[in-house]
Design a protein that fits this description.
By secondary structure, the chain is of the alpha/beta class. It is about 35% helix and about 20% strand. The chain has a 7-stranded mixed sheet, sandwiched between helices. Strands 3, 4, 5, 6 and 7 form a 5-stranded antiparallel sheet that branches.
């Protein structure tokens, strides 16, 4: 059995805080990394990495929106996937000094009822422009255009927690979409739902983020036999490529009891959410859980020959790091364990 473990945010992005790793017991992780064959590649987002793993080519954007319709959409929408779709997710923008910081639904909640009311307002305002807004999930909205725009966007995962001043869409039609972006903010500003949210102490929904546009790819394939993930895009790609998919197991022992022989992709994305918003305390907690629930059992499984090959891939802003390990690598006693900080700096 082969396992590819995708763990975005495994390394803390700020090298100037070495003490973040203090007092963390990570013997299994450090041993696995030390014995592995290590390579580093240019940085990519999780969506880009998954697209490449499933043989999906980049269009103007990575075509997240049409692929996600496999998960969120109706049969009627699936028949219309030759049309151009964009994600148009609800966000909260905050002005701080000269920066406009973006927060996504990782740090606020929104109901489907609220999303539907916001979308109704958008459709009343912009249907004349050939746009149809569809809130298929509370925090996953879509927009269908009557023609493909000349537009390149930044993935939501690339802008969450960051200053968006230099991250707005670019391309020949960018001015039109910048104006749309501004008009939507004005419509949301005085919306009664946002007044209610403020009274409750919730973050307002004062904008949306356009991203992941494209048409449905003609072919989606995978080198994996099964996907285990709570990440919606990972599940959508599994559905599109017609391979089995399951929610992420709590522990590696639970996964082993269910997994059949083959090549498995397991996506653990709990750490990435903490790095986006620099939540050190929760990142350390998640890393400890990863060590105890997954890495220690996997280390034992490799030693026992139950797993033939383990690949750990972590995605960070400065690169993609791959660690490939087989049982034979465990005998390489000259490879001494190193701290996680040493990999973050390398």
């Amino acid at each position: 059995m082969n396992l590819h473990l995708l763990v975005p945010g495994l390394l803390w992005p700020d090298h100037e805080i070495p003490e973040i790793y203090n007092d963390l017991s990570l013997s299994a992780l450090e041993s696995l990394l030390a014995k592995s064959h290590y390579t580093k590649n240019p940085p990519v987002s999780i969506e880009a990495w998954l697209c490449q793993a499933f043989g999906v080519s980049k269009q103007q954007d990575w075509p997240v929106a049409p692929i996600m319709l496999k998960l969120d959409g109706s049969n009627e929408m699936l028949l219309a996937q030759d049309e151009y779709w964009l994600r148009a997710d609800p966000v909260h923008l905050r002005i701080e000094n000269n920066h406009i910081l973006l927060a996504d639904s990782q740090i606020f909640s929104i109901s489907l009822k609220e999303s539907t009311q916001f979308a109704d307002m958008l459709n009343q305002s912009f249907s004349k422009d050939g746009l149809l807004f569809l809130p298929l999930q509370p925090d996953r909205w879509y927009v269908r255009t009557d023609k493909a725009p000349h537009l390149q966007t930044h993935l939501l995962s690339e802008v969450a927690g960051k200053n968006i001043n230099q991250l707005l869409p670019i391309g020949d039609d960018s001015r039109v979409w910048h104006n749309l972006f501004n008009e939507i903010q004005m419509l949301f500003h005085d919306h009664p739902l946002n007044q209610e949210r403020e009274i409750r102490g919730d973050l307002t929904i004062n904008s949306i983020w356009f991203w992941g546009g494209g048409v449905m790819p003609k072919h989606i394939g995978a080198c994996y036999d099964q996907v285990w993930s709570d990440d919606p895009f990972g599940r959508a790609l599994a559905i599109a490529s017609k391979i089995p998919h399951q929610p992420l197991s709590e522990t590696a022992q639970e996964w082993q009891q269910t997994a059949k022989p083959g090549h498995h992709l397991v996506i653990i994305d709990s750490l990435a959410n903490k790095t986006h918003y620099k939540n050190i305390y929760e990142w350390r907690q998640c890393l400890s859980l990863l060590e105890n629930n997954w890495l220690k059992p996997l280390f034992d499984a490799i030693k026992a020959g139950k797993i033939t090959q383990l690949t750990i891939t972590t995605l960070n802003d400065d690169g993609v790091r791959n660690f490939e390990l087989t049982r034979g690598n465990l005998w390489k006693f000259w490879r001494r364990t190193k701290s996680l900080l040493s990999y973050a700096k390398n």
